[in-house]
């Protein structure tokens, strides 16, 4: 091997790519296009609504069921749909 090849193997390589935590203000650019801030997608909003909406509806239905059982009067939204 030549002396130059040995010296090249001993030198650490220069990295041209920056790690994400070291990125400069160019992090919001892809191929020269400016990217907006990250935001939830439609699927994320649907999952959020399911995660919070279904338990809230079940709790409301249970409260309506207890009131109907205790008083005999149907006061819930589902009573309007049945009648």
Describe the structure in brief:
Helix content is 53%, strand content 5%. It has 83 residues and is mainly alpha-helical.
Structural notes for this entry:
- The termini are far apart.
- With 83 residues, this protein is mainly alpha-helical.
- β1 and β2 (33-34) form a beta hairpin.
- The chain has helices spanning 3-10, 42-71, 77-82; strands at residues 29-30, 33-34.
- A two-stranded antiparallel ribbon has the order 1-2.
- The chain has a domain at 42-83.
- 0% of the residues are buried.
Q: What is the average of the pLDDT values? A: 77
Overall structural class, as computed from helix and strand content, comes to mainly alpha
Shape: rod-shaped
Integer-rounded radius of gyration: 31 Å
The major pleated sheet works out as: 2 strands, antiparallel
Helix content: 40-55%
Taking strands numbered 1, 2, ... along the chain, how are they ordered across the largest sheet? 1-2
Number of strands: 2
Strand content: under 5%
Secondary-structure element order, N to C: HEEHH
Oligomer, anyone?
A: single chain
Low-confidence stretches are: none
Q: Distance N terminus to C terminus?
A: 93 Å
Question: Helices and strands in order, then pairings?
Answer:
Elements: H1 3-10, E1 29-30, E2 33-34, H2 42-71, H3 77-82
Antiparallel strand pairs: 1-2
